[in-house]
Amino acid sequence: MTTPEEVRAMFDSLSDLEKVRTGLIVNPKKNKSWTPIREAVKAYALEKKSFSLRELKEAGIIDEKVTGPDFRKNAVEKIDILYEQKGVLKKKASLYHIHGHSMNITFGESSTFVEPSREAAIYIVNTLLNGSLGRVSVKDRMTKKQFPFKDSKGAMKKFENTLIDEAGKDGWRATGRPFVLLKEE
User: Fold this and answer.
1) What residues of the chain score a pLDDT lower than 70?
2) Less packed terminus of the chain by CB within 10 Å, N or C?
3) Distance (Å, rounded) from C-alpha 94 to C-alpha 92?
4) Residue 173: helix, strand or coil by DSSP?
5) Are strands 50-52 and 95-98 parallel, antiparallel or unpaired?
6) pLDDT digits over 35-61, tens only?
7) What is the pLDDT of residue 44?
8) For position 175, what pLDDT does the model report?
9) What are the sequence ranges of the domains in the chain?
């Protein structure tokens, strides 16, 4: 009996014309392993501290066809030292960085946050809560125009922990009610 490996070796030894005459179609493997790519990305991250997807493509570390979601799923989520800062570069591209090397962001009055993010929480603490004391309902200060995710219960639930974390750095603490923070002198 002939093994599949022997059949494949015999098929590969045929000329292109003979392969066509067999009527068989053999698809080459298209999926690459992300393991060596992850190692190269991690080394690049340690060297550069922060980078964009475009920089990785220009450096030849990843293929030109790799998309942001693919990179996020196969590299960022599996490299423990890598963080993503969404929408801070031109065309709302993400910045990838190691801890302590995020991009400092300045927000304008017309900043819009389409989805919950750490940047939105920082904006709320620095702008909407700035100078306030006592019990404050953050949700009442958020506008739907500036925070389109405000009406989504799932998004707001996800956002609440990030907001409490960022507000805690400025002396705010959570109360028993959702999106109500307290700051005493």
Assistant:
1) 27-31, 87-92, 102-110, 185
2) N
3) 7
4) strand
5) antiparallel
6) 899 999 999 999 988 888 889 999 999
7) 92
8) 85
9) 35-98, 118-183
CB 177 within 8 A of CB 141: no
What are φ and ψ of residue 179, in 5° steps? 60, 25
d(CA 30, CA 91): 30
Show the tokens assigned to 36.
């060596």
Cα angle: 87, vertex 93, 98; to 5 degrees: 80
Element (H, E) at 136: strand 134-137
pLDDT of amino acid 39: 92
Instruction: Give the per-residue pLDDT at 122.
Output: 86
Q: Helix or strand or coil: residue 15? A: coil
Spatial separation of the C-alpha atoms in residues 2 and 4, rounded to whole Å: 7
> At residue 29, what is the residue type?
K
